[in-house]
Hints:
By secondary structure, this protein is of the alpha/beta class. The protein is built from six helices and eleven strands. The longest helix is centred in the middle third of the chain and has 6 residues, at 66-71.
Amino acid sequence: xxxxxxxxxxxxxxxxxxxxxLVSERKALLFDCCDTVTPERLAALGVESVELILCTQHRRxxxxxxxxxxxxxxxxxxPAGERPLFEQVEAYWNDPANRWHLYHHQPGPQVLARPxxxxxxxxxxxxxxxxxxxxxxxxxxxxxxxxxxYLLQVGGKTVCFCGDAL
Length: 166
């Protein structure tokens, strides 16, 4: 699965979940992180390290690849309202209503199986500055109640990363 160039320094890595990759000086900021995102795939884009992973939602498919990059020093940014579903997954899964009676739609069975540390929770109107780029946060409940989308202006375009669609 080859990367798709969206704009200068901005790529889309196809996978079960589309992952956005913003590149600056051999470093990357990722928008979500599917489990098919690997150091080898990123190296093809000139990336040696991942500094930030901006998660649009707590669902497992959207962040399954993040663990390996966090172990190498990447920081995770996630929707503030969903932070406990990243960091306190034991509390969710230890509740019998969430283990045996999954009749509720949200948050549902896609909650992470193990914790993922979040360095910053974000919501509507927040901005994330990275390597001269500014990413704006929009609250966009949908796939999950606390989902966010990320707006980025690059190469004369405004691109929105919103979970799995672009």
